[in-house]
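Researcher: I'd like a candidate sequence for this fold, 404 residues long. If you have to choose between options at a position, lean toward the conservative one.
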């Protein structure tokens, strides 16, 4: 019985280079190494999957599907894989979509076809021998085998940012790889699916469409997919037993503005009715100004005054969201993403409590993170100093970013 492992490593992994909601840079100085070639535990992520399948006694062949521009990167990995070379076939070039890449790999294997094939994503470096064995064992009695884990979180459906219903999670499972099949069956299914407009997100979905029964086998919580920069930090910690503190940066910011004439203040992107307004060249939002400085400080890129000087007329009355957006772009260019932000507002009035959640929501939206990663607090100065006398408002901000 010959069992081939087909490892798909032809993607670009763009999400690992960006923060949520932002585009990955194409001409920046950020490290744009595709994620499968980035280091985890002192070795490229792809190498971990190759070693796992090569070391398994049931696996007779290992074939990796790569991007057309990655041959040199791949050759560097393969040359250092002692003990894996006997099973490792020459890599083949994939296509523009995962489905095309898998089919390219299957066609390459067809010249000397195995009995079974295990199709695995290179972004899952923690596949272990026990999981591989469960899939192989299942294929003795089934045409397809899919490792799954139960969905344990409550599921919601939303529209335009508003939750519309709770989805029943009974019978729902999270699919993993490797997904195993009898070789000729899955090759025939992929060939039949060429040219269809259907969105096949994995090989089990192609098998289902083709009419191949796919059995469920027990997955592994350890077999997590590495997608974002934060995933890389966690993966590094798991493999080395330490936290990659060198990939974490902390920045702080402070801003203060005096009161002037007006009927509202803008704090954290939220307009709050008040008998005065804050005086400044832009909208004088001390919260977003402090956050901007914190973002810039985390990457050592100057301050808000350097990038948005008050002497420049274009910033007169500007919405401070533009400052946050530009600072976040600079973070993203360096391969960073925001982990969390915390703000303290110093003022006697207005009351911050009623507007706290609105500010948190707006800041979370601007930074591309979930609400639970944003803190907004307020305190008075107990009548001390200019803030205590009600002459203005100040804000302090701290931001943590992952910079890989």
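Model: Candidate sequence:
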């Amino acid at each position: 019985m010959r069992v081939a492992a087909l490892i798909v490593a032809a993607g670009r992994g763009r999400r690992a280079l960006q923060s949520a909601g932002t585009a990955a840079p194409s001409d920046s100085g950020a490290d744009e190494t595709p994620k499968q070639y980035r280091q985890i535990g002192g070795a490229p992520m792809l190498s971990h999957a190759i070693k796992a399948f090569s070391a398994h006694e049931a696996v007779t062949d290992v074939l990796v599907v790569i991007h057309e521009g990655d041959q040199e990167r791949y050759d560097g990995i393969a040359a250092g894989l002692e003990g894996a070379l006997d099973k490792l076939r020459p890599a083949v070039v994939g296509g523009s979509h995962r489905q095309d890449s898998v089919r390219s790999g299957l066609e390459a294997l067809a010249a000397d076809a195995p009995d079974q094939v295990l199709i695995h994503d290179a972004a899952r470096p923690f596949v272990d021998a026990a999981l591989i064995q469960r899939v192989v064992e299942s294929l003795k009695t089934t045409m397809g085998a899919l490792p799954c884990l139960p969905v344990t979180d409550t599921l919601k459906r939303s529209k335009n940012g508003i939750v519309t219903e709770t989805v029943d999670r009974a019978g729902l499972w999270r699919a993993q790889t490797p997904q195993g099949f009898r070789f000729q069956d899955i090759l025939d299914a992929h060939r039949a699916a060429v040219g269809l407009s259907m969105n096949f997100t994995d090989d089990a979905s192609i098998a289902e469409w083709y009419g191949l029964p796919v059995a469920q086998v027990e997955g592994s919580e350890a077999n997590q997919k590495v997608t974002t920069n934060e995933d890389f930090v966690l993966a590094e910690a798991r493999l080395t037993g330490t936290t990659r503190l060198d990939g974490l940066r902390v920045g702080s910011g402070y801003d203060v503005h005096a009161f002037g004439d007006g009927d509202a203040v803008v704090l954290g992107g939220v307009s709050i009715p008040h008998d005065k307004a804050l005086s400044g060249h832009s909208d004088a939002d001390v919260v977003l100004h402090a956050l901007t400085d914190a973002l810039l400080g985390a990457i050592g890129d100057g301050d808000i005054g350097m990038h948005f000087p008050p002497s420049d007329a274009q910033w007169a009355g500007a919405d401070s969201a533009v400052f946050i957006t530009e600072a976040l772009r600079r973070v993203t260019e360096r391969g960073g993403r925001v982990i969390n932000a915390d703000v303290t507002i110093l003022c006697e009035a207005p009351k911050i409590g009623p507007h706290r959640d609105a500010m948190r929501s707006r800041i979370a939206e601007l930074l591309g993170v979930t609400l639970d990663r944003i803190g907004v607090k307020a305190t008075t100065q107990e009548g001390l100093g200019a803030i205590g006398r009600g002459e203005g408002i100040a804000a302090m901000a701290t931001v943590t970013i992952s910079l890989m």
